[in-house]
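TICKET: design request
STATUS: open
ATTACHED STRUCTURE:
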């Protein structure tokens, strides 16, 4: 929360005097767009999507197993002994618990993978952004994700171009 207030204070100070803001050389960059538009970002997002598809397939397979077991139980329920009925019910409960646990674990794996990939890309993008800002004479670059309005140059295209060029 204190970061938010520091950011608001900084933005207020930067935009409070138009002469100061013009002299300060302020620009904005959209890291989300940069990730989506760079070749490395596109490849990373594709890998994450493939991973998500694989995880979804695992969940769907477990779901199909539960459905099959449920149907088997329902078709035999009338002729099962009490012991066999309890056995089916326990197997169904166990399968459902495993399904829920699998879903939570796979979701956590996906979140961790996404955080790791995005952190690596963001670190690289920040380096390129800093180079572009220095070359263009900007003393402040704001992330467009946290700025509501900025009548300032957007250097995202240049950052993407330079990132893909390996600089």
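STATUS: resolved
RESOLUTION: sequence designed for all positions
ATTACHED SEQUENCE:
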């Amino acid at each position: 929360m204190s970061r938010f207030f520091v950011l608001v204070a900084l933005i207020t100070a930067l935009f409070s005097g138009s002469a100061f803001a013009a002299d300060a050389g302020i620009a904005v960059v959209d890291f989300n767009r940069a990730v989506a538009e760079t070749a490395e970002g596109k490849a990373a997002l594709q890998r994450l999507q493939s991973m998500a598809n694989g995880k979804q397939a695992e969940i769907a397979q477990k779901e199909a197993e539960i459905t099959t077991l449920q149907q088997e139980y329902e078709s035999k329920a009338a002729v099962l002994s009490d012991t066999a009925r309890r056995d089916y019910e326990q197997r169904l409960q166990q399968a459902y618990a495993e399904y829920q646990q699998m879903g939570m674990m796979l979701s956590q794996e996906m979140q961790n993978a996404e955080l790791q990939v995005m952190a690596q890309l963001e670190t690289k993008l920040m380096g390129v952004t800093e180079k572009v800002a220095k070359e263009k004479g900007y003393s402040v670059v704001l992330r467009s994700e946290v700025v509501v309005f900025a009548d300032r140059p957007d250097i995202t295209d240049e950052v993407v171009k330079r990132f893909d060029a390996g600089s």
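CLOSING REMARK: DSSP finds six helices and two strands in the chain. Strands lie at 26-29, 140-143.
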